[in-house]
Write a structure and sequence with these properties.
It is elongated and about 55 Å long. Strand 1 (7-15) and strand 2 (21-24) form a beta hairpin. Strands 1, 2, 3, 4 and 9 form a 5-stranded antiparallel β-sheet that branches. Strands 5-8-7-6 form a 4-stranded antiparallel β-sheet, with no helix packed on it. The protein has one helix spanning 42-48, and strands spanning 7-15, 21-24, 31-34, 56-61, 75-79, 94-98, 104-112, 116-120, 130-139. It folds into 2 domains: 7-68 and 126-139, Chitinase A, domain 3; 72-120, Beta Barrel (Thrombin, subunit H). The longest helix is centred in the N-terminal third of the chain and has 7 residues, at 42-48. It has 140 residues and is mainly beta. Helices cover 5% and strands 41% of the residues.
Length: 140
Amino acid sequence: MIEKGSKIKLHYTGTLEDGTVFDSSKDKEPLEFEVGAGQVIPGFDEGVIGLKAGEKKTINIPADKAYGQYDEKRMGEYPKENVPKDMELKVGAKMFLQSPDGGVALATIKEIKEEVVLLDLNHPLAGKDLTFEVEIIEVN
């Protein structure tokens, strides 16, 4: 039975409220992680506790236990001159930015102005409730 600290393998399909599939392991290798180690979103960790190998479950995860609520403060302007020259500037394009602490953040271009681009640093799934269909393959 899965508990905190278990190392597990599972297949999953993640969907949005409207049924749109945003990720799946079905045609890939199963996802492997240690439960409770912070390797997956909190609601996913919590949702597999108590399951056994071979079991299937639907896990509904509210935004707060997934990628958090959408935060308008995570929008900002970025000088066009700092955008990589080989990158096509278009709304919806994604780029990586280095943060002052050396980390990397994924940003999505939301608007293109004369001298700046408006970037959204929220996770693409922020503010969304998620549903996962999981099938436990292995528990160690």
